[in-house]
Specification:
By secondary structure, this protein is α+β, with helices and mostly antiparallel strands. It is 69% helix and 7% strand. The protein has a five-stranded mixed β-sheet with strand order 2-4-5-7-6. It has a two-stranded antiparallel ribbon with strand order 1-3. It is rod-shaped and about 205 Å long. The model is unreliable at 1-19 (pLDDT under 50).
């Protein structure tokens, strides 16, 4: 057990330490943005709250100065003026006894009550101002009881003796009232000055806070811009530069992952794609080299095939012509010395040589499809079919075949090969006619939605069974003996090769009967519609 533990400890000690991944590389762009936005919003919210508090405090202090302190001081001054009016009216009435002097007194009394109420309402939270207002009210009441009320109650018409008797006491009492009102005004003035000072301080604090908010917003903008550039823009630019180098052909240039985790994963995916592209490119280069070698070998093989074709068309046919010629010469010269069996043998030899020549010619024609006469040009199939029918006119007339066809289009192709295609299909339709009914051959053509012309050679001959629908297009595959229907079994195979060379397909319509329908397609433009006015003029 101890040995196992020591081995486990030794194995654990030999493991490579896991390199910690920094948080900046583990976080994705979304996480960076989420945290950045959350921090920015938090800072802005705190600054907004502080700014709102500063703005509200400045507004409250401004309202205090404008709506309370200043109106209270004005009301105190007007209160002093109302008391002065009372003193002036009472003193004039006491000296003259005229009722007119009591009007300022009575108006002053009413104004005193009004302004006292205003001041008390405006300085409700200022205990010193309330105490001074109470002192003014108390001193004014004492003066009024000492002088104002007794003098104003005296009968008019003559000076009031009481006013002269209490003149000094009344003056002293009103001086006390005047002193109290000035004390009240000074208290209100000090309170207003204090409020204005606080308002100034609050305004400065508000301005500083708003400057701080502006500075923080600017700093956040700079930090966000720098963070986005460092965390997103620069890694994307680096990835873009690396990708452009790879796109320009430097497939061995590696892509270095940088930035947040998602961008690093993106760079890793692109790097993996680059690696696969480099591998596929190397494989493609190897395959292209092999293809070039095969193309070279194919050209060499084609050259050998052309040489063989030349030999087959000349050197191989020459002995066959000699065999056929000398056999025919032998038959003519020694006909009287040969019996019927010898003549039959000579006929077999001549026929075999002729069929061998025909077979060689057919093989040469089959091998030349797509290799020789590859120049294409516009081919009018209408004229081509007319020439083909004229070339087979003897066989058509002898068999009594009725041939009809739709208007045929003009396509781009090899006119020689397309002529062979038409001739083989038409000759097969005539050759494999049914003895039970008059032979008829119909050629149709229509343009399909696939951009191809769809042709059909339809006859009412002996037909092709479904099981042989593919076999008839294989070279040298015959469904009948040479005695019944002559030929080498290469015609439809040659047709298939010609159609496929031109980009089409060919098949036997197994649903048609009786007879045979060979369908094939060739690429070509749609027919141009004839205007109605042109049709009417032709009529």
């Amino acid at each position: 057990m101890a040995t196992d533990e020591r081995e486990a400890e030794a194995g654990a000690g030999t493991r490579e330490p896991r390199v910690p991944v920094p948080a900046a590389e583990r976080w994705t762009t979304r996480r960076w943005l989420s945290i950045g936005v959350a921090v920015s919003l938090t800072v802005l919210l705190v600054l907004g709250i502080v700014g709102g508090w500063a703005l509200n405090r400045a507004s409250a202090l401004s309202s205090t100065v404008i709506d309370k302190d200043t109106p209270a001081l004005v009301a105190a001054v007007r209160l002093e003026a109302a008391l002065t009016d009372q003193e002036t009216g009472v003193r004039g009435y006491g000296l003259t006894g005229q009722q007119a002097f009591l009007e300022p007194y009575r108006a002053g009394v009413d104004s005193q009550r009004t302004y006292t109420t205003q001041v008390r309402a405006l300085v409700g939270g200022n205990t010193a101002a309330v105490a001074d207002l109470d002192t003014v009210t108390r001193q004014a009441r004492a003066w009024q009881q000492l002088i104002a009320l007794p003098v104003s109650a005296a009968p008019p018409g003559a000076p009031v003796a009481l006013a002269a008797e209490r003149a000094d006491a009344g003056k002293h009492a009103f001086d006390t009232v005047r002193t109290a009102t000035r004390t009240l005004q000074q208290t209100l003035q000090r309170h207003r000055d204090h409020s204005r000072h606080e308002l100034s301080v609050a305004g400065q604090l508000r301005d500083r806070i708003f400057l701080l908010i502006a500075a923080v917003i600017l700093a956040l903008t700079v930090v966000i811009f720098a963070g986005l550039r460092r965390g997103v823009t620069l890694p994307l630019e680096q990835l873009s530069r690396d990708a452009r180098q790879v796109a320009d052909g430097s497939f061995e240039h590696p892509l270095t992952p940088t930035g947040p985790a998602d961008l690093r994963r993106l760079a890793a995916d692109v790097e993996q794609m680059r690696g696969r592209l480099a591998h596929e490119l190397a494989f493609t280069d190897t395959a292209r080299a092999q293809l070039d070698e095969q193309a070279t070998e194919l050209r060499r093989s084609n050259e050998e095939l052309e040489q063989f074709a030349y030999v087959a068309s000349h050197d191989l046919q020459e002995p066959l012509r000699k065999v056929a010629s000398f056999c025919q010469l032998l038959q003519r010269r020694y006909a009287d010395q040969l019996d019927d069996r010898a003549g039959q043998y000579i006929g077999y030899a001549v026929d075999g040589a002729n069929r061998m020549q025909t077979l060689i010619n057919d093989l040469l024609a089959f091998s030349r499809v797509g290799r020789l006469h590859t120049e294409t040009s516009p081919v009018d199939l209408e004229q081509l079919f007319t020439r083909t029918a004229d070339a087979l006119s003897i066989a058509v007339e002898e068999s009594g075949t009725e041939v009809s066809h739709d208007p045929l289009p003009t396509i781009v192709g090899d006119p020689t090969q397309l002529g062979v295609l038409m001739q083989n299909l038409l000759s097969n339709a005539v050759k494999f006619r049914s003895p039970d009914r008059p032979p008829r051959v119909a050629v149709t053509a229509e343009h399909g939605d696939d951009g191809m012309w769809h042709f059909a050679f339809t006859d009412n001959g002996i037909g092709i069974k479904k099981e042989f629908a593919e076999q008839v297009f294989v070279i040298f595959q015959r469904l009948h003996t040479r005695e019944t229907y002559p030929g080498n079994g290469i015609g439809l195979a040659l047709c298939k090769k010609i159609v496929e060379f031109h980009g089409g397909t060919i098949a036997v319509d197994t649903d048609h009967g009786p007879g045979t329908r060979i369908t094939f397609t060739l690429p070509g433009p749609a027919p141009v519609p004839v205007p109605v006015a042109a049709e009417e003029s032709q009529e």
